[in-house]
Amino acid sequence: MALKLDLSSLDPLKTTLTSPDGTARFTTETDAGPEKKTRVTLIKKVGTESMTDWSTEIGRVEWQEDQDIMPAVMLGDRVLDMTKTGGKFTSPEKFQASDGEWYEWRIQSMQPTLVPLSTGVGHVATFSSSTHRSGLKKVHTASLFIAPEGMHLLDEIVITFVYFLARWRNREAARERKNGINPLAWIGIGSSGGAI
Questions:
Q1: CA geometry: angle 97, 102, 105, nearest 5 deg
Q2: Contacts with 168 (C-beta within 8 Å, 6 or more apart), sequence order
Q3: Mean pLDDT for the chain?
Q4: Is the CB of residue 71 less than 8 Å from the CB of residue 93?
Q5: Which of 46, 60, 111, 185 is most buried by its number of CB atoms within 10 A?
Q6: In which band, very low, low, confident or very high, does the pLDDT at 192 lie, cut at 50, 70 and 90?
Q7: What is the DSSP letter of 119?
Q8: Which residues have CB under 8 Å from 30's CB, separation 6+?
Q9: Per-residue pLDDT tens digits for 90-133
């Protein structure tokens, strides 16, 4: 069965991912690292059992101050080696999952999409965001869709998604600032903040 996770915030580095019934499934939070030259994003699986809330850290991303240094992406104690595979505009990055298969996050139709490299077809996960008006204010929605074929990799998908979306948005914002464009206005974030 497929799973839809709604993001409470457009910022993948500080959000809660909930199932359609409103149950929190994952949280992300980002703080400065101990040396202040790094930021650390913790990804936690959350839930309620016997009327008691619980959370377990499943992974982390260690961001470096120097943007040329690749962040460390961790699933528990295991380093997920995120490898750039080319493509200036699709920003693809691949990793080998715990099932031994290679998967690649890439941009398709301006949305991050995870595909298995063995077949190169079909989506294991897709991110979708939209903006619409409700009265006088803008409403931003964002969801991560995981296909049934990806459910056995749920933790890895969430961790690599947080990493990939944040990296892609950082690159797009830098490119747009360089070109004198309001960074990320086209996805509804605008100059008032949020995503990065």
A1: 90
A2: 91, 107, 112
A3: 86
A4: no
A5: 60
A6: very low
A7: T
A8: 13, 14, 39, 40, 41, 42, 63
A9: 679 999 999 999 999 999 888 999 999 988 678 999 999 988 88
Which position has the token pair 């948005």? 169
Q: Are 91 and 107 in contact (CB under 8 A)?
A: yes
The two counts, helices (H) then strands (E), for the chain are 1, 13
Find the length of the chain.
196
> How far are the Cα atoms of 132, 139, 185 from residue 136, in angstroms, in the given order?
10, 10, 18
Closest CA to 39 of 69, 19, 18, 17: 69
Q: Which residues pair with 56 in a beta bridge?
A: 45
pLDDT confidence of residue 30? 94
pLDDT over 60 (residue 147): yes
Q: Partners of 146 in the beta sheet?
A: 3, 125
Tell me the C-alpha distance between 38 and 32, whole Å: 6
Rounded CA-CA distance 154/30 in Å is: 21
Of 159, 165, 169, 171, residue with least CA distance to 61: 159
123 C-beta neighbours (distance < 10 Å), count: 16
CB atoms within 10 A of CB 156: 24
The residues, ordered by sequence, that sit 6+ positions from 63 with a Cβ below 8 Å of its Cβ are 30, 38, 39, 40, 41, 71, 166
